[in-house]
Amino acid sequence: MNTPDYCSSSTATDSSMAHISNNRRTQTQTQTKTTTTEESGDAEMWDSLNHNFRQVQTVLDRNRVLIQQVNENHRSRIPDNMIKNVALIQEINGNISKVVSLYSNLSSNFSSNFHQRNPRSDSNDKSESPEA
């Protein structure tokens, strides 16, 4: 008469439980790696934004000083100071162009980072517009 082999059944159950446990551990490790990669990507993106905003602020601070100097020169009514204002105003104008360029780059970089993080298929990007 055959008796059931409870030991081998138990071994099979243990083996299958170990396999499930290993799969869960692998999934958790993969999720952790993905989260860490995303977080480092986020950190890089925020560092880049922070760096760009600092550059903009530096140029704006310089313009503040230049504008104060232009105002002082204008109030003095001294001809040499008025001549100096031409160069100061040209520098202010160049700095404004720099700020526009920096904001444009900042916007492009942020947009590309955002779209790399949140890829969508072309069908989702198409806007639905009613056809006449």
UniProtKB/TrEMBL annotation:
The keyword Nucleus applies. Residues 119-132 have a biased composition (Basic and acidic residues). It comes from Fagus sylvatica (Beechnut). Residues 41-119 form the Protein EARLY FLOWERING domain. PANTHER family: PROTEIN EARLY FLOWERING 4 (PTHR33469:SF5), PROTEIN ELF4-LIKE 4 (PTHR33469). It comes from the Eukaryota. Residues 1-42, 109-132 are annotated as: Disordered. InterPro entries: EARLY_FLOWERING_4, EARLY_FLOWERING_4_dom. Keywords: Biological rhythms, Nucleus. Transmembrane segments: none annotated. One of its GO terms (cellular component) is nucleus. Residues 1-25 have a biased composition (Polar residues). It is found in: Nucleus. This is Protein EARLY FLOWERING 4 domain-containing protein. Signal peptide: none annotated. Residues 26-37 have a biased composition (Low complexity). Belongs to the EARLY FLOWERING 4 family. It holds the Pfam family Elf4. One of its GO terms (biological process) is rhythmic process.
